[in-house]
Design goal:
Elements lengths: L1 H26 L9 H17 L6 H14 L9 H10 L5 H5 L5 H20 L4 H17 L5 H31 L13 H14 L7 H18 L1
Helix pairs in contact: 1-2, 1-8, 2-3, 2-8, 2-10, 3-10, 6-8, 6-9, 7-8, 8-9, 9-10
Length: 237
């Protein structure tokens, strides 16, 4: 009976978080970004995953499979993220995803811009002390720079604007997730960002997942990186 009660409580809290994510995501949209649907699609997949499997103890491989199934159900095209690509990204975090950037299909100028985005997210993620609004402001400015650029190709701009959109929606979603998680565990320091800002690191990992295929940016692999990264982090807590 106690186990059933815990499951019911977990489901109820998950539903509350999903509503919160949906409302806050509307505030984070960027009408100037012509590819902003990428971030919205990403969150739809992750929210569906949390709704169905948020209380499950899935392996990395299972999380990848389940996320790809959700993408197919929602008509989001893209190759499935492999476990090998995921673990490569995990190792590359300490390098601010430099190898991931180098393996991307971006031009030299495009790679420089993507690295700038990763450097901001990962460095601040590990240092802590950054707010969600600071992060979102940086991303909006970043997207404005990309849109106005005279040195980036159209394909570079599409790649980078999709990347930043996914990152922007993702950090909002995981910020709310960890904030609610702190409340559930009665963490009185819930309003103070931890030294390792997990929501910011997971957001960066989502972008890296979208880059992992080596071709155009993929929302499908970005979402898979998101659900799988959170699975690994939650097991490590």
């Amino acid at each position: 009976m106690k186990k059933l009660k815990n499951v019911a409580t977990s489901v109820a809290l998950t539903l509350v978080m999903l509503v919160s994510f949906s409302v806050n995501a509307q505030k984070l949209s960027n009408k100037n970004n012509p590819y902003d649907t990428a971030g919205a699609q990403h969150n739809e997949v992750v929210q569906e995953f949390l709704k169905k499997y948020g209380s499950s103890n899935l392996s990395v491989e299972q999380s990848l499979i389940k996320t790809h199934e959700i993408c197919k159900q929602k008509g989001i095209e893209g190759r499935a993220l492999t476990a090998e690509q995921f673990y490569f990204g995990v190792k590359d975090i300490k390098n601010n995803f430099k190898e991931t950037v180098n393996n991307s299909s971006l031009s030299a100028n495009g790679k420089s811009e993507l690295q700038r985005l990763f450097d901001y997210m990962v460095s601040n993620g590990f240092k802590g002390g950054i707010s969600l609004s600071d992060c979102v402001d940086f991303m909006l400015t970043f997207e404005d720079d990309i849109i106005k650029s005279n040195t980036l190709s159209d394909s570079d701009k599409e790649f980078l604007l999709k990347s930043s959109s996914v990152g922007r929606y993702s950090v909002n979603l995981w910020y709310e997730y960890y904030k609610d998680s702190d409340v559930r565990t009665n963490n009185l320091m819930s309003n103070i960002a931890p030294r390792w800002v997990r929501w910011l690191i997971v957001g960066a990992a989502d972008i890296a997942g979208g880059v992992a295929g080596g071709g155009a940016f993929s929302v499908a692999t970005g979402a898979a990186a998101s659900t799988t990264t959170i699975t690994v982090i939650d097991k490590a807590k």
